[in-house]
Amino acid sequence: MATKVPFDNDYSAGAATIAPSLGEKTKAKDIAQYGVATIDKSASVYQAIALMIKKSVSGLPVTDETGLVGIISEKDVLELLCNPKFIAGRVGDYMSTSVYAFDENDELSDICRCLIENNFRRVPVLHEGKLAAIITRADLIKVNKDKFKPRGAKNKSSADSKSVVAKDVMKCGLLTVSESTTVYEAMEILATKNVTGLPVVDEFMKLVGMVSEKDILKLLYNDNAKPGMVKDYMTSKVTGFDRNTPLTEICQCLIDNNFRRVPILDKGKLVGIISRTDIMAYIMLNRSRFFSQKS
């Protein structure tokens, strides 16, 4: 059964560092995404895969006539797709029934702490015990990012701001930042571009690190956090692959680890990104070719 995170558990708002930017009593319902995509537990697992690819989401709440009963994630289905003996069944056969969910009146600081301390990036929000919405890491970044805006900065989108260090014209449509990009600019991209992390590159497109939603989330409700640059918060130890690496090897890496995407390199230079969703879509269209590589 789905389990609601109690208000007074480890994610409660008692720590001194908690300082929500919208006020001490900001609630989940203030930022939740209503009209959430869900999947019935009796649906084919292939329907869940198709919906994840279409919506570009990392997981789907699973429901039945009683309400929320589980979650099925990209990682769950990628492991299934990579098994040549996999025979499609129902979502209920593969979903996780251990689910963190929050009431719409729970505080954002509780949700933020939960998403920092766990590997999932979204949580269901309940209204009177029924699934009503979703809150993601990106939602929390979006609602908090203005407190990290440099003084004098104008309200511009990341696409319009000349100071944003991001590459929109690469052959993969790749978004990147530099070490000197401000945390606020990185937040703007993460909150609006539907990506969970940004490669950090130097002027020659050499990969020097990654800055993720989770890295940024740790700043949001910390009174001591200061506006800074990406280099202050990025992870410099990054798993990347050469562009000639077999897809099966990359697939196994994304099954075995909690990150959703990996950078692809050509002689050390960043040329693209491959995500779990990309591999799922490829296998769905090229199953026989994929498994011929594994044999």
* Tally of separate helices: 10
Average pLDDT, to the nearest integer? Answer: 80
- Spatial strand order of the main sheet: 1-6-7-8-2
Count of domains = 2
Looking at CATH, the homologous superfamily of the largest domain is CBS-domain
CATH level 3 topology of the largest domain: CBS-domain
Largest sheet: 5 strands, mixed
Count all strands and give the number: 13
Q: Mind telling me the C-alpha Rg?
A: 20 Å
Which architecture of the largest domain would the CATH scheme give at its second level? Roll
How would you sum up the global shape? flat
Reading the helices and strands in chain order gives: EEEHEEHHEHEEHHEEHEHEEHH
User: Can you tell me the residue ranges where pLDDT is under 50 for at least 5 consecutive residues?
Assistant: 1-24, 157-172
CATH uppermost class of the largest domain: Alpha Beta
Q: Which quaternary structure do these chains form?
A: single chain
What proportion of the residues is helical, as a percent range? 25-40%
The termini sit apart by 39 Å
The computed structural class is alpha/beta
